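ok so for the tutorial part 2 we go from a plain amino acid sequence to predicted structure tokens. step 1 is just haveing the sequence, like this:
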Amino acid sequence: MRRLIVASALCLAQTALAAEGEFSLGTGLNYTTGTYGGSTSTKILTIPFNARYDNGPWSFKATLPYLHVTGVRAVYPGVGRVDNGTLDNLLGVPRNRSQTETRTASGMGDATVAATYTIYSGGANRSGIGLTGKLKFATGDETQGLGTGSNDASLQVEGFQQADRNTVFGAIGYTVYGDSPITQFENVVNFGLGAMHRTDGGDLIGVAFDARQAGSPAPAPLRELTGFWTHRVDRNWRTQAYVLRGFARGSPDWGAGLSAAYAF
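step 2 — the prediction. this is what the tokens look like for a chain of 264 residues:
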């Protein structure tokens, strides 16, 4: 599952180019694999269903992912490895058994909704600062490793600056975790930055770095480097592809994905 902290900052930059009152629907296919600090790989296939609406300074987005997870029972999408006894008690297994046992599970993951307000837009939309609030709902089955079992909230400030065909963007945010039956989550800071270039044909090619502070005992630290390519097929259709490399226990080792969206 793509988890770019700077994704909303990138969206903020792209919203400046969107039509007034634009509504879009999209889906895609994301695949990640990683050991998350262990010795056994966990593979996660995600099919997200996205809806987005842009109107003036506001942007709204909702996502419901379908997941297929094969790997260690203690590894959770978006969180990494959970390594305390609370998870073992929930699953009804001997202590530390969840760190080695594997499972295969499919179903809906945790849903998210987000709203972004552009608090500053300058230079004919060549720069901007936005504020994003995001809610995650415990719609995934935590006993199957499809969700964390908690309702979480986050607040993030993001911005971008264009120079000719180049754009730099970044974000910093804070996540407040709700009560979870799998472990105790600690509230954490996240940040990210990136840059993209608009080609002669109007495509966007860029790179972004995404990071999350480690909580004690959870979530695991996250460090990811992502390269992406966005292509506008016509007035309505947009596509995007990305590849990802992770560098921390909360990130997969590798990932890739394709997505498409239709704007009405």
